[in-house]
Design brief:
By secondary structure, this protein is of the alpha+beta class. The protein contains 13 helices and 15 strands. Strands 6, 7, 8, 9, 10, 11, 12, 13, 14 and 15 form a ten-stranded mixed β-sheet that branches. It is globular, with a radius of gyration of 24 Å.
Length: 420
């Protein structure tokens, strides 16, 4: 009888020790592949298992259910992980819940369905979001104007706007690239698509697409945009019904006094901006700070992430999770945003105080959310047309790319009402 009792005690002790969780640390010291860590988290969610995102705890770590399959997947993908007993995991969660800690555990419930708005034809530049989604092994579907006009965005939880021009001015590439084969072919393809969708001009068709995307966000969608997709999207909304295109873009003159006809109530993030009238200039408006950054060198170009209350404002806190509060800057057609032209209802998540510019902003529209991220490629400081793509195998811990993946997981979170 004594032997049986001892055996049962040993068995219970062994069972207690085997109960565990997987912690994926996201700090600088202990994680060797931050980007693929997001892919592991997404993969677990896709298997209908919940994950806890530990905001401000060791760089925004993830707490996963334990299992041999998950351990092996982490090993295969090169993601650092730690095995915690139930007692250890509970201790961490208790520490995080303390009112004295600016930390929070947010439950991620479901893998979001991801769409990338991008043309089907090959473009002479790469897109940071598609590159990092591929590297992190997070699945996505490519959609473009035809799917948007047909209201297929409702099938997706999260939408990324690829490097795009929603104003119908073909990226303002006319001055430097109008004689190149890719520009000529792209313009022709855009015109044919516009006619196919029932529009007489590309500018009208792109405007209609922008309105469909606007409605998607208002209805509860999550939208993320980088580089020229940020300001050109807002310009298209503000210029709804107003011809701002010169003849080389749409075949007829622009509307007289079009600047005074813009309606900033229709735009998401920006107000009071001045459009660039010169068709030869590679710029859309005064929103972008690229030409006003001459005092900033590559070596000193950094932006800082804002510090929010994890318990009171989990949304902006999620979007700013990183293993550093200082992120290396990078340029694009739209590099950064003028602070003076950001609406007061929009949160600035990342800024360069030296130049009084915002790099990373977020807002609410209707039931949905949008995030705008300035610049083209977080690991290619001045990416130019035709440059080779960035190899993310060389940048597995990139803080700039982490901000993109924060937005990818954001829709999976169990929502709490934001306090600010």
């Amino acid at each position: 009888m004594k032997k049986i009792i001892c055996f049962l005690f040993f068995a219970c002790s062994l069972f207690s020790l085997s109960a565990s969780s997987i912690l994926i640390p996201m700090d600088a010291e202990y994680q060797k592949n931050h980007l693929k860590a997001y892919g592991i988290t997404y993969w677990v969610l896709a298997k209908q298992q919940k994950v806890q995102w530990l905001l401000n705890y060791r760089g925004g770590s993830f707490l996963l259910p334990d299992g041999e399959v998950i351990r092996k997947e982490c090993q295969i993908r090169g993601v650092s992980f730690e095995i915690l007993s139930d007692d250890q995991a509970n201790t961490i969660l208790q520490e995080i819940s303390s009112p004295s800690q600016n930390q929070e555990a947010v439950i991620l419930e479901k893998a979001p369905k991801i769409a990338v708005y991008s043309p089907k034809s090959k473009q002479p530049w790469d897109d940071a979001v598609t590159m990092v989604l591929t590297y992190a092994e997070i699945p996505y579907v490519t959609v473009y104007d035809e799917e948007v006009i047909q209201d297929k965005l409702a099938l997706y939880d999260w939408l990324h706007l690829h490097h795009e021009d929603f104003t119908g001015q073909y990226g303002k590439f006319y001055g430097s690239y109008r004689a190149t084969p890719w520009y000529i072919e792209g313009k022709q393809n855009a015109e044919e698509l516009a006619i196919k969708l029932g529009f007489s001009k590309v500018s009208e068709e792109k405007g209609a697409v922008a309105l469909k995307i606007r409605n998607y966000v208002i209805g509860g969608g999550f939208m993320f945009a980088m580089c020229s997709a940020t300001d050109s999207f807002d310009i298209a909304l503000a210029a709804d019904g107003v011809d701002i295109c010169e003849p080389m873009f749409d075949g007829d003159p622009s509307e007289a006094n079009y600047q005074s006809k813009l309606d900033f109530n229709k735009s998401f993030a920006f107000k009071d901006f001045i459009l660039e009238r010169n068709p030869l200039k590679y710029e859309f408006s005064s929103i972008d700070m690229t030409s006003k950054r001459r005092s900033i060198s590559k070596e000193t170009d950094y932006f800082s992430l804002m510090d929010f209350s994890a318990k009171w404002d989990p949304v902006p806190t999620m979007l700013c999770q990183n293993h550093t509060s200082l992120v290396k800057g990078f340029m694009g057609q739209t590099t950064s945003f003028s602070r003076e032209q950001i609406k007061p209802t929009v949160l600035v998540l990342g800024e360069n105080k030296v130049n009084n510019e915002a790099r990373y902003i977020h807002g609410i529209k209707g039931k949905g959310f949008f995030t705008f991220y300035g610049g083209h490629d977080p690991e290619d400081y001045q990416h130019r047309v035709g440059d080779p793509k960035t190899e993310l195998e060389l940048h597995p811990t990139s803080p700039g790319y982490r901000l993109i993946l924060n937005n990818v997981l954001f829709p999976a979170a169990r929502k709490k009402k934001q306090k600010t």
